[in-house]
Each structure stands twice: as structure tokens, then as C-alpha cells.
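seq/struct pair 1
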Amino acid sequence: MTELTDEAAQARFDAPLADEQAVMAMLAALPPVTMPRELSDSISAALAAESASRATGSSADSDTSDQPLAEVIDLSSRRRTWVGAVAGIAAAAVALAGAAYVVRPHDAQVVGELGPVLASGNVYTSGQLSSEVPQMLTNAGLGSNSGTNTARVAPADAAQLSQTFAATTDGIRSCVAKLGDSGDVTVVAIDLAQYQGNPAAVVVTRATGGTELTATVVAPTCTSSGPEVLARTTITAP
């Protein structure tokens, strides 16, 4: 078990690793667990019995006002090792949930930072996708050559988002995780527009450490079980 200083432990707590974030997200998504009635009744009975026992014995006990209520234990030496136990705790939690949930492997893709969701109004076409997407990014101020003439692409509003996977961050991550990108990715932007005359979304991603971008056209209802990829191309970042 790795020992950490208090400062390092706090830093680890403030910025958990990707695997720890994934476990926390999985645990947060679990449905509430109801304690079995038999167990609840047993605990209540035990607490009631203990309370009655203390009440009965209190008058017969001698004065203990000058005695310590409990042994005081110095936890300073133990405090530094708590972070090292996080992985073990997370693994146990995953094991408990394993009967009902599929856990992402350690080397599976991580969808990192999410860029803006836009509504350009573009009608993308199969033959021009590799030039249309960089132009959209430049117009949105997301290209290195955008300069000061930016924000010509409006962000999607609530009505436009409501019928698409991009309405929530979970929906975006669920869709992007199934697009076939190799390794961890950052979502540069999502454009709710049209493709070949039909409603679609263009998801622009960048692999971690990569220089090129991938533009994937998907149906507005993209999900992890059915991403409905309509087109896909690699482009040079503008």
C-alpha cells in the first residue's frame, strides 16, 4: 500500500484518477438499496436492548465523571494511507455490483473534456465533409486561425437539444464511447445540423496526444447500444 503525505492525499482526493471517477460514476448510478425488513428489525431490537440495559445499570454505576469516555487513538500515522485503500474499496464495490452491471475495463476508452454543442444549420454532404467540418470549427472560434472573427456559429438551445443525445453529458459520453475511436478522446465540438438533408449530429473528437481530428456523423438519437454512424472522416485541425 502506497503511503502519501497529507498534501498528496488531499490532491488525490480533489482530483481522482480516471478509473476512480468511473467507479464513482457507476456507484452514483446504482439504484437505492433497501435494507431487508428482517435485518432492520434485528438492528432496531439490538439498539433497544442496549438502550434499556444502559438505563437500568446507570443508577448502580459508580461516579465515572473523571474517567475518560473512550480510548483516544492517534490517527495521524494512519491518515496518510487512506488514499492507497481507495482502489481496494472501489474494487470491492465493483465486485458487489458485478451481478447487475458491466464494468469498463481498465484499458477501455475514457471520454474526457466535452466541447460545446452547436447548431450551425449546415447541411453536410458525404463528398464535402472533410472541408465543411473544419470550416464550421473555424466559424465557431475553435480553430487556430479563427482570429477575432468568431462565434458565428450559435450554441444549440434547449429545444434543439431536447430530442438528441446531446441533451445531457451522460448522453454525449455514452454515444462517443461507442464511435470506435482508438484510445481516450476529447470531444472538440458537436454540431446539431443535417447530413444529406436529414437531421444529424457531427461529433468532432481528438485522441489524447493526437494532432488530427475525427468527424463522425451520427443520428440525433445516438446511444451506446446504437450509435447509428452515418459517416466518418479524419480531418486536419483548422
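seq/struct pair 2
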Amino acid sequence: MTDRLVQCVKLGKELPGLARPPYRNELGQRLFENVSAEAWQLWLADSVKFVNTYRVDLASPEGQKFMFKQCAIYFGFEQGEVAQTAWTPRKEGEHGHEGHDGHDHHGHDHGKKEG
């Protein structure tokens, strides 16, 4: 753990920063200067969803470019929407994404009473 504090852009408070830049590029330096170790752990957990949904090959230049862009958007360094993943949190009253047939009815009897 590092004693270096950063004003975390994701969590909105001063927290311990990363021990070193996570990438060897400009984005890595921005993350090092503006993202807490705690927020970075949140990104690592969320980034798995992108890798799984899009079958991202992290060894390929295309895969790395995709993930760098998602990371930059996630932390607010770039404008845009993060890519949709297979997992989306449910919001009350929100319709599902295309291809989703609604909620399941297992356990619902819709008012029928067994006699």
C-alpha cells in the first residue's frame, strides 16, 4: 500500500493512490495521478465483464485499444458511454435490452390460488 494520496475522480474523495501507473502510456499516468487504489480495484472487477462480453483478446492491439477506451470512459477522462455488457443492473421500471424476453415468472402464480 502506498502513503501517496490522490483526489479520486471516481469516488470523489482523497484516498491512497496506486503504487505505480497501471499502463505505460498517457492513460496510465492519468490513472496514477487521479484514481485511488480502491477505485482501480472496482475497475478491475468491472473490466472482466467487458472481456467476457466482447471476448476481448488483451494481447492484441485492438483488444488493448478497446479496453483503454472503456477505462478512460469509466473514469471520466473521455466522453461517451461505456460499452454494454451481458450483465446490467436492473432498474425499477426499466425495459430490458434487445433480445431479453422480460422477467421470469417462476414462483409467480398471478393471483391463482390452489385449492
